[in-house]
Specification:
163 residues, mainly alpha, two-stranded antiparallel sheet
Length: 163
């Protein structure tokens, strides 16, 4: 779906669902119609994908069981007489922000040791919007943020619910 500048009424109303409750279909198609065939093809492709994904996950587990202790951070290659398996492992650092006071104290010490530029660029702070709080704002308060917010929609998810 395309991106659009956020404004009033930009979010389509959606029906909240709870658990496994039944929602009436928007439309019904017989399997002999073109749309019905497309939907049936999707269902079969999804079933095949699920089987293949399970097999791939098992094979990946077997590979890791055999070479896992030889894999290091960065790019790794393992050659056979038929192909080369390439693996990549990257480091991921997560910052625990549950103790903001302690984190700020640590950054203050780092600023003294390495300089303020290093300390201020060490941890990146990214603004994010709490959509639940935002949705409760009155329209005039939302209008204050309109020029700073872009609303985009993700790809629709598809799943099969057997009858």
């Amino acid at each position: 779906m395309s991106e659009q500048q956020f404004g009033f009424g930009a979010v389509p109303t959606q029906q909240p669902t709870m658990g496994k409750e039944k929602i009436s279909p928007k439309a019904t198609f017989e399997s002999v119609t073109a749309t019905g065939v497309v939907l049936d093809n999707f269902r079969h492709a999804k079933q095949n994908y699920d089987v293949a994904k399970k097999a791939l996950d098992e094979a990946k587990g077997n590979v890791i069981a055999h070479i896992g202790n030889q894999i290091s951070v960065g790019t790794n290659r393992f050659a056979t007489n038929h192909f080369t398996l390439k693996t990549s492992v990257s480091k991921k650092y997560d910052v625990d922000v549950s103790d903001m006071q302690g984190l700020n104290q640590a950054l203050t010490v780092i600023a003294g040791l390495c300089g303020g530029d290093v300390a201020s660029s060490l941890i990146k702070w990214k603004p994010s919007l709490d959509s639940k709080v935002y949705e409760k704002l009155p329209d005039d308060a939302k209008a204050q943020l309109d020029r700073f917010i872009t609303l985009s929609y993700g790809s629709p998810t598809l799943s099969v619910e057997e009858l």
